[in-house]
Amino acid sequence: MHGNQERNPDIHWPSGLTPADAHSFHRSEAVVPVPPQRALSVLTDLGGWVDWVPGCESVSADTFTSAFEVRGAGRRFEVFVGEYEPPNRLGWLWIGAGVRLYQAWLLTEVADGTRIVVESAVRGSAPKALDTLSPSWMQILDELWQAQLARIRTETSGVPEGPRAAGAVGLSRRSPGAGPPASLWLP
Fold first, then answer.
1. Do the beta carbons of residue 56 and residue 70 sit within 8 Å?
2. Residue 182 above 50 pLDDT?
3. How many CB atoms lie within 10 A of CB 128?
4. Cross-strand bridge partners of residue 99
């Protein structure tokens, strides 16, 4: 259990993968200047993930579905949608060799657009092979959050993408044909 003291009580966690059960936990929030429907549509546009999700090489579906496969840096993850209540709630379980990750999204309309809260819990079934206790998992989840946030802001505001698009401090964009950042898939 790492850093889960400030978790949001409105998030529905699957049994065995709550922040208290996790080897690593990540929480972030931001306000984006778009309605919740638009923010959710960007997150669920699976066909565009290879263009903006760090390290994503392929997704088995172009349109949002209840289960799909994601590949990155030679690793395969099966993704199962556990909760989908448009436009306010999304939760998905990522299962890969030796690791499970549950990522939950809350999208709430506010005066300035949408308040987004994302929390992720990581659990490794083989901690010796994949160190889920490592601080690098926090970095991995933060990089993913920054990429997702930047994409929502860019996609909805028309701001050109770049290394620090939409205030995504520290986010490095992948150039076409470049390999994925290994740190996202291999802590």
1. yes
2. no
3. 7
4. 96, 124
38: helix, strand or coil: helix
CA–CA distance, 35 with 157 (Å, rounded to integer): 12
Q: Indicate the SS3 state at residue 82.
A: strand
Domains present along the chain, CATH in parentheses: 24-176 (3.30.530.20)
Q: Can you give the pTM of this predicted structure?
A: 0.71
Q: How many CA atoms lie within 13 A of 136 on its CB side?
A: 10
How many CB atoms sit inside 10 A of residue 68's CB?
19
Q: For residue 109, what are the β-bridge partners?
A: 114
d(Cα 6, Cα 75) in Å, to the nearest integer?
A: 31
To which residue do tokens 């889960």 refer? 4
Residue 87 pLDDT more than 70?
Answer: yes
